[in-house]
Amino acid sequence: MQFINYFFASVTSYLGLLSGIALVKIAPEEQKPLKKYFVHGREILLILISIFTMFYYFNDKFSLLILLAYFVFLAFVEYKMADLFKKTIIAYTLLGILFFLGSKNSNLFIIESSLILLYGLPTASLVYSKKEKNGHKVIFYNLGFILIANVLFLV
Questions:
Q1: Which one of 132, 136, 137, 148 is most buried, by most CB atoms within 10 A?
Q2: Total count of domains within the chain
Q3: Domain extent at residue 71
Q4: Measuring CA to CA, how many Å separate 13 from each of 9, 31, 63, 109?
Q5: pTM over 0.85, yes/no
Q6: How confident is the model at residue 58, as a pLDDT?
């Protein structure tokens, strides 16, 4: 895969955050009633990302063991951290690594890219606050996803 294609795929996956912010700006009255669905949606999407990645690395026992430890840490971050903003920053950084690992197989890459895009919708909808107008913070602080994914590709 060429770098330019990989770069634009990472940016497209990252645009889920912008879509989530746009969703809250368009219909702010829906943010509060849909909160529990956004939380469950994030959890389900993280589980799906984990399952698809583990299916690809199923034959390589060492990689599977490393991925299992990785997903346990991701689950720990997701369930034990109280601050949603910090949780999102760590999760998106870790998703950047998974995005790179998925680039080895085109089918896995498409699935993971789509799931990361979908993960951004509920994440940004939960983190964005219209009162604080923190949309630029949500976008800027989660840029670790694009940076990590692209630096790993270039190395």
A1: 148
A2: 1
A3: 3-154
A4: 6, 22, 24, 11
A5: yes
A6: 79
